Each structure stands twice: as structure tokens, then as C-alpha cells.
Amino acid sequence: MAEEETELSDQQKKGIAKWFLINAPAGEIQYVAKDLKSVLKDDDVYNEAAAVAFPIYNKSHLIYLKMPGGYGDVLVTSYGELQDNEYLDPKTAQVVIVDHVKQVCKRVRPATDEELPSPYIEEYRTN
């Protein structure tokens, strides 16, 4: 007797897609993402999964991105995260706005005094 195949719900598909993206080998997430898009054939499911998975992947793998304007590179880590998609580069006192899915810096803005480390901490960081 043949078993009936059941269609996965969108929620289940998102969960599986997130798992594959988050667990992609270092530097391979774009390849995994491309394959997932072709398997899922549903942009809405993929986009929702990617919006959650890419920030987790990027921060856990400590990726670095080129800052626009020739400022250098910024590390994408939970330690430098100010809020969603904003990361502090203490070396240049800049805040970088990141597009996690494309893995690029969209904009750079000067950090406010509240976002910068205290002068006491900065003295130790630069030594």
C-alpha cells in the first residue's frame, strides 16, 4: 500500500529553509540560498526565511564587509550590533547599515556620542 504524500505547510518550508541557510558552511550561504530558491519555487517563503536566517549566519560567522566611501571593512558581529542592521565600526566611529541577504553595506553614517564606547574603554582598545 502506497503512502500518501503530504504537502508541507509554508511554515514548515520556512523552518527547513532557515535551517539550511543558518547551517551553510562558512562562505557558502549564497550557493545554498540559490539552490533553496530553485527548490522552494516560492519567493515569499524564501524571503521570509532569508530575512531571519542571514543575520544569524552573518553574525555567527563574523563576516566582514567593505564600507562604502573607502572607510575600510566592518565586522558584522553581535558585539558591534547597535540595532537591526546597524553595526558600529569603533575604529572609524562610523555606523554601517547592512543588507544581510545581499551581504553588503548600504550606507555609512557617523556614530553618535551615545553609540561610541566611553573614552575610558577606548583608551584600552587603542593600546
Task: Record the SSE blueprint.
Blueprint: H1 10-22, H2 29-40, H3 43-60, E1 64-67, E2 72-75, E3 81-83, E4 86-89, E5 94-99, E6 104-110, H4 119-126
Antiparallel strand pairs: 1-2, 3-4, 4-5, 5-6
Helix pairs in contact: 1-2, 1-3, 2-3
Overview features:
single chain; 127 residues; alpha+beta; Ribosomal protein S3 C-terminal domain; 2 domains; four-stranded antiparallel beta sheet; 40% helix; 22% strand
Q: How would you sum up this structure, described in words?
A:
It is a single chain. The chain is α+β, with helices and mostly antiparallel strands and 127 residues long. The protein folds into 2 domains: 9-60, no CATH class; 62-127, Ribosomal protein S3 C-terminal domain (2-Layer Sandwich), CATH 3.30.1140.60. It has helices spanning 10-22, 29-40, 43-60, 119-126; strands spanning 64-67, 72-75, 81-83, 86-89, 94-99, 104-110. It has a 4-stranded antiparallel sheet with strand order 3-4-5-6, with no helix packed on it. A two-stranded antiparallel ribbon has the order 1-2. α1 runs antiparallel to α2 and α1 packs parallel to α3 (43-60).
